[in-house]
Amino acid sequence: MSTTESSPPRSGQDWEEVQSAADFQELRRRLRTFVFPVTGLFLAWYLVYVLMSSYAPSVMSIKVFGNVNVGLLFGLLQFVSTFGITAWYVHYANRRLDPLAGKLRDQLEGERR
Amino acid sequence: MTVLAQGVQGSNPLLNISIFGVFVVITLAIVVRVSRRASGGASDFYTAGGGFTGQQNGIAISGDYLSAASFLGIAGAIALNGYDGFLYSIGFLVAWLVALLLVAELLRNTGRFTMGDVLAFRMRQRPVRAAAATSTLTVSFFYLLAQMAGAGGLIALLLHVTSKPGQALVIAIVGAVMIAYVLIGGMRGTSWVQIIKAVLLIAGAGIMTLWVLGLHGFNLSALLGDAVAKGGAAGETLLNPGKQYGKTGLSKIDFLSLALALVLGTAGLPHILMRFYTVPSAKEARKSVVWAIWLIGLFYLFTLVLGYGAGALVGPDAIKKAPGAANSAAPLLAYQLGGTVLLGIIAAVAFATILAVVAGLTITASASFAHDIYANVIKRGKVDGKDEEVKVARITAVVIGIVAILGGILANGQNIAFLVALAFAVAASANLPTILYSLFWKRFNTSGALWSIYGGLGITVVLIVFSPVVSGKPVDPATGRSPSMLQGVDFSWFPLDNPGLVSIPLSFLLGYLGTVLSKEIADPGKYAEMEVRSLTGVGAEKATAH
Q: Has residue A9 been placed in a domain?
């Protein structure tokens, strides 16, 4: 099996034309305006947590209730935020990305046949 | 850990081996069964024809990712170092958001088998494939060696095999079973082993977690209180950060460096990237990561309870005295809760974990060699006959398996746990910048890719070699040995154990400089094609029928 191509043979498709079409630009914008800021957000949130654990242990050691302190709650919040961002992205992708991507895919694959 | 008088108290080696034997027999039977459905082509061997569902793949990813180190290691770290062990586990989880948002779906749509596929899409095939394969083989080899060397300690701990030749024999058997999985089952078989192992591991940890919580009236605060009480004079520090990483200014920076490598390394680990190709579409790749995040997150929450549970019920002093020290926390807790039988089950799960992770690494490394180096660099894409590439992949898998066995035997008892951190650092430095630039930056070109891969790899390895993990840590009076890998020499000049803080930004910079300083102009048509394909999934291979 020849394996040089990572995709089926090109069919003379003008990819730059597809790329500059309004629908594709909209899809690209929707993806990038979600994933870049959210990545920045969760990385910053994680770094704040790591830095506070290293440089503000006295704050992290404050007891909130029983033996549960700020640090433990902060750590558990990292789990909550990770699960939350996951669910948020799935919701966003289902609603805002998949329909448009599917429409473009159908158009392109239809043209080729 | 060279001379161990005995294994964990109460452990019944015969029972442990029997339960593990049952696991091997059942999984082998399943591997043989699923391999009958295989068509035998490269796509089948490398990625199971892209025929797994997102749910199956997500479970397999957790099986691939949750190594013995994260099960025994993190539970032990929490039991002994308290909060800092927990801190460590969070990086491993948050990292998955990088894979979810930036990598998994786009990668699925632009490649077929390896990381090299994605880079080769719009760059000069041979140099970038050679670079991608070099980095993949390096990361896989370090990771593999760490897993196999860890097996020696586990054997002493759980099977009471204390003689070096005896341990070598067990390592060889584990390696041989792993080679059998890969040869018979390819990616399909390997994935099923990982799925079964993930279910057993998460279920086992879940039962123990409920048990520990039940003993404390399902009150986390009460559990923490018991762990503090059992910890004696230093008990209170278990709840606060800093016990392990907060000792000096340097150790704080070192932890920041480690945290960065963990969070950015996961989405660059080749054996994780390859799993995204085992599903038919980008949407299924997304579902895979979602499943993986829930399962891995749940598992690390379990280890939090298990770690403090081991601290409360077994106690740090007993754990430190046991063979394997921190690694014995979870097995000792299992014995405390459910006696010999539960200990046997947990021991078997730990072995199954090594087996599944090592099999995943082996198939990734063999795919990268056969597909990138052999078929595309050596044969320039002109492979004779349908099965030749798979044949090369199978031979490579056997060679890697044998190297892993020999490496595991030689490294047995050596202090090489840092190899896992090194693998993450290389993945974060050499692979992630290259993948992200390739997917998102139009101007990125062959020169940039080579700079970021070789530069990231070179910087990381050099910084590790000249770091305190290899040489120069002061001798620990308690053991009479230096915690460094080499004894009696000191050629270290890089102060940190973890190179990520330096190597990751430098690799991003190198990828940028390599691109803008070269005269090569990236082909805008190719980038347009890649971007359209990556976002829409047009032309992405659908699952083969089976």
A: no
